[in-house]
Amino acid sequence: MSPYGLTKSADGGKLYLSSSGENAVSVYDTATGTITAGITVGPYPHGLATSPDGRSVYVANTGPDTGFGGSRTLSVIDTASDQVTATWKTGNAPHSLAPATDGRTLYVSCYDGLSVVDTGSGEQRALLTDQAGSNGVAVHPDGTRLYVVNTWHGTLSVIDARTHRVRTRVRVGRVPWQVAVSPDGSRVYVTNSKDDTVSVIDAARDRVIATVGVNHVPTTVTATASIVWVATNASSTVDAIDAKSLTLVGSTALGLTTNPAGMVVA
């Protein structure tokens, strides 16, 4: 009920889906096409992320409110047993998550800031309050910086992963939602839900080099070497942007009642 976040196991054999209305994460077997388990987590889970070593799935327990009335926890699922093995403290109403490339740190966007969590101890090392109200978060493949979407300011923060200081803020479109980095680290893609566009950023110069029109209310985004995949919440489509030409090359309708919110390439 009310699926939201989505992530995959390291081998792609399982998908994990947060069922916000059931306070659970469902496990989907990609070989059989069946749900094999339902894992009880915290209230109203939203974002999910898999650790770089594939041993854990992190779950942002957002609700019951997206503001100060929200949860302050995330659940840790062991992917071998599909059981919750720990519950860690975060900022208020955690939403999106991204692990550092070395797996030692987890970044969590929260209502009151960006939570920096030590995955060894489960302790919150810092709460970057200048990133309050942020949404999407992604880590550059070289591990030196992270990208945080400032939804209500129309910007993308580029943050030094060592000092946790903002290097720059890149102006993107209206009500940006999620962010993805190309596998080679050269490009950063941001969905602008109010503009029906995707901003393409040169990661070396922290500058927007293109703006690509897509269907209505783009939300989630994921990038492969050749295609940038964008899910549009209101149009209920998956749009394909060619990563070389930066043009929209295709769109697949999912049905108007689907309202996609999460997407992975398995």
Structural commentary:
This protein is mainly β. Helices cover 0% and strands 53% of the residues. It contains no helices and 24 strands. The strands form 6 sheets. It has a 4-stranded antiparallel beta sheet with strand order 1-2-3-4, with no helix packed on it. A 4-stranded antiparallel beta sheet has the order 5-6-7-8, with no helix packed on it. It is globular, with a radius of gyration of 17 Å. The mean pLDDT is 95.
- Low-pLDDT sequence parts: none
Helix percent band? under 10%
Instruction: Compute the separation of the termini in Å.
Output: 22 Å
Pairing-aware structural class of the strands and helices?
mainly beta
Shape descriptor reads: globular
The beta-strand count equals 24
Q: What would the average pLDDT be, to the nearest integer? A: 95
Strand order of the largest sheet: 1-2-3-4
> What is the string of SSEs from the N terminus onward?
EEEEEEEEEEEEEEEEEEEEEEEE
Summarize the main sheet.
4 strands, antiparallel
Rg, please?
A: 17 Å
- The DSSP helix count reads 0
Could you list some keywords that capture this structure?
single chain, 266 residues, mainly beta, four-stranded antiparallel sheet, 24 strands
Give a brief rundown of this model:
The chain is mostly beta strands and 266 residues long. It has strands at 3-8, 14-19, 24-29, 34-40, 45-50, 56-61, 73-78, 83-89, 96-99, 105-110, 113-118, 124-128, 137-139, 145-150, 155-160, 166-171, 176-181, 187-192, 197-202, 207-213, 218-223, 227-232, 237-242, 248-253.
